[in-house]
Amino acid sequence: MRSGWKAAAAIGLFAALLSGCSGDEKKPSAPVTPSADSAALTALSHSADHLDTTSFAVDVVSGKSLNIKARMDSPKQLGELVMNAAAKEQTLKMVTRLIGSDVFVRIEGVQLPGVDARNWMKVDPSKISSGFQVGFAPGQNDPGGSSRMIKAINTAEALPDGRYKGTIDLTKAGTGTGLSFSSADISGLGAGASAVPFLASLDQQGRLTSLQLDLPAVTNGKAAFIDVTYSAFGQAFKVDTPPPAAVVTPPDSIYQFFGAK
């Protein structure tokens, strides 16, 4: 899987999930017989609207293989993401800072040609592939990618405890910002990719606070569980601009992690 949020596509953000990892021990604990609710799809369809208009924090976790902590504020044009990923005895730490129209990336762990972990790379937005654009426009500002996931929902039911249960068709989610599945990813997931179970929670204002995906077993691997959590709505935060002396121009190879082929 890929993530197109800023530089989070780097090194195949969710390569760990498709490389035989065991995922998370946690699984959705929804009741077996949820009650039907004709308003469920409507409630979910608007549950991510607030991500375009307020600041928020988002955490994405899949067992020990992936952890993302990010803050985003589209109105103030500030964002920061820290991603830690592990796969096949390799580790990656990527820090991305978004300040106005400037995007800075620092990569540690995995050795990449022309990349020094001590430096920040200033990304050229014009070199980013269509669908992976960097910015604060709707659809480009969520490291969790929940808006696209929600649009790909097949079925949804309201549970007695207020949560929502259903399935998502990942073949319709497309690639781009946040959680993203390429055609190769979909192929690896098999027939189960068209009906991935999810469990979602909304707060009293109808805002999405949690989205859990229970992926099918992948080719030569085990099933993976992804937990996306939203919080800190409306809270201010600070993002520091890297010192000029530590900013360099990235090699062209970096842009493959922004969707370039």
What is the topology?
Layout: E1 2-3, H1 40-45, E2 55-62, E3 66-73, E4 78-87, E5 90-99, E6 102-108, E7 120-122, H2 146-151, E8 153-158, E9 164-168, E10 179-180, H3 183-189, E11 196-202, E12 208-214, E13 225-231, E14 247-248
Parallel strand pairs: 7-14
Antiparallel strand pairs: 1-10, 2-3, 2-13, 3-4, 4-5, 5-6, 6-7, 8-9, 9-11, 11-12, 12-13
3D architecture notes:
With 261 residues, this protein is mainly beta. The chain has a single domain (2-258), classed as Clam (outer membrane lipoprotein receptor (LolB), chain A). Helices cover 7% and strands 32% of the residues. It is globular. The two termini are 15 Å apart. The model is unreliable at 2-26 and 29-36 (pLDDT under 50).
What ranges have pLDDT less than 50 throughout 5 or more consecutive residues? 2-26, 29-36
Largest sheet: 12 strands, mixed
Briefly, what CATH class?
Mainly Beta
| Number of helical stretches of at least 4 residues | 3
Q: Which architecture name does CATH use?
A: Clam
Overall residue-averaged pLDDT value: 81
